[in-house]
Amino acid sequence: MSAPTAAAVPARAGGTWGVALRRLLRRRSAVAGGVIVLLFTVIALAAPLLTPYEPGSAEWAGRITPSSVPGPGPGHLLGLDSFGSDLFTQLVYGARQSLVIGVTATGLGLLVGALVGLLAGGLGGWVDTLAMRVTDVMLSIPALLLAVSVAAVMGRSPVAVMIAIAAAQVPVFARLLRGSMLAQRGLDYVVAARSVGVPTSRIVFGQMLPNSVGPVIVQATLVLATATIEVAALSFLGLGQADPTVAEWGRMLVKAQARLESAPHLALLPGACIAVTALGFTLVGEALREVLDPKTTR
Amino acid sequence: MIAFVARRLALVVPVLLGLSLLLFVWLRLLPGDPARALLGERATQEGIDRVNHLYGFDRSLPEQFLLFLGRLARGDLGSSIRTGQSVVDSFLERFPATVELAVAGLGLAVVAGIPLGYLAARRRGGPLDHLSVGASLLGVVVPVFFLAYLLKYVFAIRLGWLPTAGRQDVRLDATHPTGLYVLDGVLTGEWDAAWDALRHLILPAMALGAIPLAIIVRITRASVLEVMNEDFVRTARAKGLTRAVIRRRHVMRNALLPVSTTIGLQAGALLAGAVLTETVFALNGVGEFLFTAVNHLDYPVLQGFVLFIAVIYAIVNLLVDVSYAVIDPRARQR
User: How many other C-beta atoms lie within 10 A of the C-beta of residue A74?
Assistant: First the structure.
């Protein structure tokens, strides 16, 4: 570190990340995405405060007939679902499932993938070769097959869904971090640090890693969007949550299928929730990509 | 070119063999007792032993492995534990529906996506560009099965323009030599059957094609923008070549390389999407079949499925490589 650089850092207030955040806030799409994500997070956290009912209670099952489902009315903001639970309650608690499973799965995939990428990119040599061959194999297995196998081992459970989604992301994160770490390895500052005898672990963690995480963070944000969709897709196929009293957007869509003609809102609302949540994450991720990537600065 | 295809084809065999055997071992090492899954919770030990013996589960893994190999060579993948039906027959019966859907969906995405991406790039910042960027964003965030619902509700239920479910009107009593209903109608000259099958295919194909379409538009747009800034395009322009020639021989030829890679990478997602779409439109493809198999730990069916997927993956990758060689002569050298 030379003196001028050290002096320049406080002047930029918050450094690279502060600059990135300010640039992000200037983008309307990023702010819109952030608001959506924040909104659904608040809904998920405050679910018991937003509705007086319990999810999956089927309390009003008597009011459901084969041909009709009560729509919006007093006591029920959006009416009932086809099993006689309050639709609004189901949607609100569904946000919990989607976000918890989606975020955990992404976090798990990121953690394991980043660890593999860090080892491969930081150490190089046979560790790198081995890690890349393993990720090659993992990438060649279709995600659906992976999900099916995990479900076959663990049965139908949200944990199985999490693991299936995370496992599909591990090789992606690993390669991304490795790639950007490799790009750092040949740079002058790393060579310089090595030549003055900075220990490898400090070069890797203190310098190469902070300079390589940009693309990984972007990818993680985008994966949050696909994970939200995949959680719903896997439970749509019957691989997710087995407990019928737990509200889940994907399963709400399955249940809505038989009543698509008479009560399309039963499908429309959970579907829209999934799409809007995914849109929020995607907008933030895309904007983040543009902000962090010097090549696309406009 | 022929030598390249032959060389590439020779590579498929060991990959396929390795992958299928790896997956065989993996699947057989899964915990869970298929005999118990078949007979239910109250099965007697005697019954379980008999089922295990019948299906060879009581033998050692290497033995089962060799038996599997031998049967594989004879094109026999065993029969479903649950229904007793031959796995190969069940797949062959249902697979054409999935293939037809996947081909139609991807075909739609490619045929619409490449020109749209090109036009968006040519008129960067124009209304078409904004529209295609916006639409491609929607294509990424709307789940396949939800889009399938929307299409079904609007075009089949509300407007009544297209059928809601199934692959063909059963009253037509059409003959199916290949199992690909649209092709069957054309081959046998039963044009009304072909038309009817096509009408059944439109909505599922649109639902399935949306995501690959969005991705293809984005990649084509980005790739065309990049290529158009290359020196060789400026040179071509300076030489006085016509726009059409520059577009066809200089811009598109180079811009399509990343696009064809992307299409290849979509194969897995396309398969998952096809399974979801089949469920919504009751197309009776491999989707539903697969998930009953998972819930019943139907190993022979799961193995068969894995093998089928492995074969398709290998074929798709082969096609992608060949398309690469067609677009880029340099790729033939490798």
Answer: 5
